[in-house]
């Protein structure tokens, strides 16, 4: 049995310690918001937070997570009202949406550590997350907007 | 029994009687004395009991005022999940933001006018259903008005509506409060007819100038589900008793299992079963990781079916030889060959574009549960009707015994409209073989190496300019595989040896050249090909717009001015081209080292002009800006049109800059995003979209933004460096061009 701290709860799973976190989340815990895209940390679709850092779940073995706090898209906010999620809705970022859990988790980790990133910092932090629909321009806008919302700016209708 | 449910749908009725609308049901004797029975005022709190009102297959109004739209189209990012509800809501007169959306079962009601299948592709969704969906909304509103008229004892013509509330000026009632009464009135009426293409519905629709929602920005209705991780894609399906299967697939196209050993596989924790299926050996496990490791532990002897020598290098060389020979004539508008023979100034150049994978963000997958009586699939597919038929055939059932539950699609781009329904059929085969519900997961490598690529195309051009530097003759010889050849519609689609999708965008290009000739060599080889976003236009948009620039250079003309001359008889084209040139500041001073390129293409009923601004410094290319003008005739949702232009530009730039599938020794070389690179955020240019609809008819927007972008960039590279890129991807050929 392996113990995982996921989204504020302690979960016990019967899995081998080498199993990547991604499959434990999706197949064993039913947290399917975290997506499989490449399996090699090339696309960012599986991005989650481990102790607040953006991490690729597809290459993170369960053995490395003892005592660490894991947050997935399901745990980012209870009702979809994290500033990044609110900004994403306001800017209408998503298209197919498949990469967006990873994009949002990467953006949330960036803003938590750097509340007002420069364009170059956004490019650098987000270029590990592929979007085949090409939402990049709205992702840039969404991050700028999320920074404003996190700083207390009012919502736009 | 399929849950497609003819019986269920037959309850959703609408009385179609030409001329009924507007005459007023009061005059038809339907006025009741029960004036306010069952009605709820707009500010009422309690929900009255009663049945929902489902006047047709597409819309349902419940007594609690919830409005549900059932869509027969798949949502793969293009936004139809929002656009169809907008069209229905416009005529129903409710705010689209209130609408809940469901995916339809397979049913004829969800066929599109002019297209007898439940299918999403070819940028047809809005083009074919725009009127039908508005008709559905208008029909629902008709019955709501009838119910209010009956309740209040007034003529329907005296009533008006606003965002789901009916009023006669004094009284108000929500649609939900009228649902039960409307349902009773509508009972027994025949189903809403599927209009023929271009047919006027038997109810008046709004004058476009009165639109409240169509044409206005509407945020996506699936936005919240997608930012919270709640949206369910095929890969997210979880059903009781389900195992996850990964399939060890032939490394060579068309290869078959000769025999295999699975002792090591069966020892892996989590592996439950191993089964041979037509596409390989399926390892079934309790989790994806175990299934994948189980595949790696298999020992399989493959029969390569003679395809072990296949290589794209050889394919390219053969195509280039073919391009030197005459093909089948696809177009001839004059005496092209004669004019070329006598031309004083002419050029003869050859272009090549590679095989491309779709590389949808969500790798292919499907859930299937096949029993002796029934097959149930949960799948992100673009082709529900065909999936039902081919799954039925593969597992020995009838199509009406197959239920297809459509999930969200993590991208489609044509790959999820495979004419063998490969991923759906295969899941059904695995489920049948194993005798249990199973979700087949394709790894990224399976998806990348599974074939069904955009074909590799070679295009040879011969062109001449006259003494004024104007193009006088243009010969385009196209060489490549037919996308339609293996499809069920091949015998309808391919005429006189010409697959129209091979030469689309070339035979019908908007540029007018006095002597215009197109020829086609259709090739065959073992690399499976398929529709890929914008299909034939994905190559013709590039080569044609590149060659226009080559002729401009030969004739000493400005590329924009030459295009103006070649489009001078078509004001619709000229208008958009001029708009984009002006917005982009064509010809104005640019930063040091920057240059612009222009391209123009019409496809899927939509016109697109683009100007790309690039720099090439120390051999390093940067695309800084793309100005994109789009004329889709009618705009349903400008937010979505803008998103689709950005999307197509990114998809096209990914292909133009990086994309290439190569085959060596029968094996696809690329397997993942490290060797099949795609555009990332740090390469994203600023994209400025100008939406300039001409008023109709409505065009498609999912694909039309792609064809011009590679040419706009390559033409800009030429302007910046004098290097002409005639082979994609750019980044592999920039130094050698």
Helix content of chain B: 25-40%
Q: Shape of chain B from CA axes?
A: globular
Oligomer: heterodimer
CATH superfamily of the largest domain in chain A: Beta-grasp domain
Tell me, rounded to a whole number, the average pLDDT of chain A: 97
Overall outline of chain A: globular
SS element count, helices of chain B? 20
Low-confidence stretches of chain B: 1-48
DSSP E strands of chain B, number:
27
Helix content of chain A: 25-40%
Unreliable sequence segments of chain A: none
Structural class of chain B: alpha+beta
The total tally of domains of chain A equals 2
SSE series of chain A = EEHEEEHHHHH
- Sheet with most strands: strand arrangement of chain B: 10-11-8-18-15-16-17
For the largest beta-sheet of chain A, the strand count, sense and barrel status come to: 5 strands, mixed
**Overall pLDDT score of chain B:** 92
Number of spatially distinct domains of chain B: 3
Please outline the helices and strands:
The complex is a heterodimer of chains A (157) and B (737).
Chain A: E1 2-6, E2 9-13, H1 21-28, E3 47-50, E4 53-56, E5 69-71, H2 73-76, H3 83-91, H4 100-113, H5 119-126, H6 136-150
Parallel strand pairs in A: 1-5
Antiparallel strand pairs in A: 1-2, 3-4, 3-5
Helix pairs in contact in A: 3-6
Chain B: H1 6-10, E1 53-56, E2 59-61, E3 67-71, H2 80-92, E4 99-103, H3 125-152, E5 160-162, E6 165-167, E7 172-174, H4 175-186, H5 223-227, E8 243-249, E9 256-261, H6 263-266, E10 271-277, E11 280-285, H7 288-296, E12 299-303, H8 312-322, E13 328-332, H9 336-342, E14 345-353, E15 365-370, E16 375-379, H10 384-395, E17 402-406, H11 422-434, E18 438-441, H12 444-449, E19 457-465, E20 471-481, H13 490-493, H14 500-503, E21 515-523, H15 537-555, H16 559-566, H17 571-584, E22 594-603, E23 606-617, E24 620-631, H18 638-657, E25 663-664, E26 667-668, E27 686-691, H19 709-721, H20 730-733
Parallel strand pairs in B: 3-4, 8-18, 16-17, 20-21, 24-27
Antiparallel strand pairs in B: 1-2, 2-3, 5-6, 6-7, 8-11, 9-12, 10-11, 13-21, 14-19, 15-16, 15-18, 19-20, 22-23, 23-24, 25-26
